[in-house]
Amino acid sequence: MTDTVAAVQSGDISPGEPLRRTVAEIARHDAHLGAFLSVSYPDAPGVKGPLHGIPYAAKDNLCTATLPTTCASRMLEDYHPPYDATVIARMQEAGAILVGKTNMDEFAMGSSNETSAFHPVANPWRPDHVPGGSSGGSAAAVAAGLVPLALGTDTGGSIRQPAAFCGITGMKPTYGAVSRMGLVAFASSMDQVGPMAMTASDCAAAMDILVAHDPGDSTSSDHPDAGDFLRRVRAAPDGCDGLRIGIPREYFGQGVDPEVVRAVRSAADVFSELGARVEEMSLPHTVYALPTYYILASAEAASNLARFDGVRYGRRAAANSIEELYWKSRGEGFGREVQRRITLGTFVLSAGYYDAYYLKAARVRGIMAGEITRAFAQYDYLLTPTCPTTAFPRDVRTEDPLAMYMADVCTIPANLAGIPAVSVPGGLVNGLPVGVQLMGRRFDDAGVLALADRFQRATGHHLLGPEGFGDHRERGGEDA
After folding, report:
1. Closest Cα to residue 137, out of 169, 114, 171?
2. Domains by residue range for the chain, with CATH
3. Distance (Å, rounded) from C-alpha 237 to C-alpha 326?
């Protein structure tokens, strides 16, 4: 993407050429990929700015005035917001061109993009496998070369996990670095918008646009280190001399595919060869991350989704009483997974169980965040798998919620602690991409991206791509 920006700015290609290429690729491939829920092709190539002429896609839980915002739910099937989310407005001001809204798990609740009320998304590498979730449409669109850049959201791994499954780069920024104004909330204390692209440098270019203080978001930060990402990535040295990288042993336990472990160990060897000191360490409270997350996130979801009641906007069922209106509108509008999480969240917030579940989980979250903060006193970055496995076949986990939730076990701790984390391609395992995750201190987003960029320049795993699509990457490739 940064090469295309340079070509447009130098006049080597016209500002409209990237858009024409994207339109052709979407028309050619999306009918069987299913990455988009709505598409729009503006006539103009965008205003002049840092991303002049660059087409991008946005996850369908970000409000857009020109396109529907459905959250892949029947509840919001016909909803047209009257305004743009802050990140959409900032992208437009930078000259980027919104070409469509991408498919997702309903209300961002899912790890496979199978809970979408409309249709599933195919993984470009293997169409009968899932692309990951909940930002599966964004990941698939980038991996297939339909767009060079997409926006996703990450509450418990929903950028990084699909990025790993689809073989692209996905960045979850520090909580508060990117405005959540205009993002349909799932779990407000963890939701974060971030970029998905082929490379860490492309994500850095997007972060330069996305990261800014927003008075419209009370959680938005004006931290002095949050900015100038692409310059800082490009200015970083080629090596990793002096860096300390920790590998938490808790991320390699039961359920982690041995081939995924091998890929991450190979990544550790790369960093060692680049001059970093890489060593195993421990984050013992990591084992509590999954239950802690699903208690807190479900509680926040139950509260946030209470607004969808059939009265003000969204689906309104025919009813003879206000109670029947609530019951039928929510029953018809929400899918099974959303209903499951609302039920769980309502339970843990109820008077008889609040102390036993919600309050205890909040305390464990604080302990985990403190443990991670102390780890960064000793290490500059942490290296882990992004996911325990590669992409799994469609339909195999839909009837087993716990197995589905395990797909996020490696990504959740970064959301609980509010730290930046990126997933980068780590090669192929049995012909499917495997993701490597890097985590850093709060507001060291540029450092995390710079480390990811060094890894990509040293390995070239990000140049591998699925067969049958038309972008610049190599097709197929060898296993890691």
Report:
1. 114
2. 2-239+421-475 (3.90.1300.10)
3. 58
Residue 247 scores a pLDDT above 80: yes
Per-residue b or e along 20-54, where b marks 16 or more CB atoms closer than 10 Å to that residue's CB: ebbeebbeebbeebbbbbbeeeeeebbeebbbbbb
Over residues 28-62, the pLDDT tens digits come to 999 999 999 999 988 766 678 999 999 999 999 99
Calpha distance 193→291 (Å, rounded): 23
Token pair for 89:
């407005």
Phi and psi (nearest 5°) for 145? 80, 15
Closest by alpha carbon to 146, among 213, 90, 100?
100
∠ Cα 135 140 141 (to 5°) = 100
Query: Which runs of consecutive H residues, i.e. helices, occur in 179-304?
Result: 200-210, 229-235, 258-273, 289-304
Contact present, 169 and 453 (Cβ < 8 Å) = no
43 backbone dihedrals φ, ψ, rounded to 5°: -75, -40
pLDDT digits (tens, 9 = 90+) for 249-302: 999 988 999 999 999 999 999 999 999 999 999 999 999 999 999 999 999 999
Q: Which residues of 216-228 are buried (b: 16+ CB within 10 A; e: fewer)?
A: ebebbbeeebbbe
The single residue of 73, 116, 134, 220 carrying the catalytic annotation is 134
What CA–CA distance (Å, rounded) separates 465 from 336? Answer: 34
CA 91/CA 78 separation, integer angstroms: 24
Q: Could you confirm whether 272 is annotated as catalytic?
A: no
Q: Is-cis flag, bond preceding 303, omega within 30?
A: no
321 is catalytic: no
| Catalytic residue chosen out of the listed positions 158, 220, 298, 423 | 158
Q: Which of 63, 131, 95, 89 minimizes the C-alpha distance to 205?
A: 95
Q: Does pTM top 0.90 for this prediction?
A: yes
Residue 59 annotated to the active site: yes
Do 114 and 130 form a contact (C-beta atoms < 8 A)? Answer: yes
Residue 298: which of 231, 346, 351 has the closest Cα? 346
Catalytic choice (59, 112, 179, 221): 59
End-to-end CA distance of the chain: 25
Q: What is the pLDDT of residue 442?
A: 97
Contact 109, 342 (CB under 8 A): no
Q: Which of 223, 274, 217, 214 is nearest to 443 (CA)?
A: 223
